[in-house]
Design brief:
Blueprint: H1 2-16, E1 19-22, E2 25-27, E3 42-44, E4 47-50, H2 56-65, H3 106-115, H4 123-130, H5 139-151, E5 178-179, H6 199-202, H7 218-228, E6 239-240, E7 244-245
Parallel strand pairs: 5-6
Antiparallel strand pairs: 1-4, 2-3, 4-7
Amino acid sequence: MSRLIFLFCFLTVSVFGEMVKIPAGKWKPFLKESESKLGATIPIKSFYLDEYPVTNKEYSEFIETNPQWKKGKVSALFADGGYLGDWKGKNYEESQTNSPVTYVSWFSANAYCQWKGKRLPKESEWEYAASIPPSGKNKKAVETVILNWYGEVRPQFLPNVGQYKNGFGVYDQHGMIWEWVFDFNNTSVTGDSRQDTDIESSLFCGGGSLKANDFSNYASYMRYGYRAGLKGWYTAKYLGFRCAKD
């Protein structure tokens, strides 16, 4: 019996050692959809979420095992020409190994998560986990972090992961990058996604606030607007991902 307990503990650490267990709870969606009337909440089942965004080092291990996802080899159906745009040749800067990988498409992010035996988080799961403020802070403090990030000049090179920890113990959901979610195109924000070569400045829509549960939540509005303008093959300098697991 003791050996079975040891084996179970070992497997649990191996599979979930870099993931955080998010407890079940209720979440109030930002947008008023058919499943969520004004003021209503929806239940979220417990799940696991990566503690950090996927890094350059981790993604490099993925493409070494899955060479079809190497830079220059991916079909335009699955990633645009910017794929891994900040990697020099086939590699990335050694100093950036623990920075979040960016310039990845939904298809490549989804393939990575499946390779790890995981999946991309649902939008509701990602938002629910991201909504819990750090210990001793309130939600206004979280909004301040997000709005400051929106307003500041983005760095040429991203810092290492582990900069901002929320109340669930998950790092960097805010203040560093945008992140893919499984159902990113489920967001029904209407507006004028601008056809521009700069994805970072063009993926914001102008008319969706009429469907918002909270008109003052500008931080969430920008995030939902960004997702609404994405296509599965898009890549962008500050767009990365993390994985989830049931």
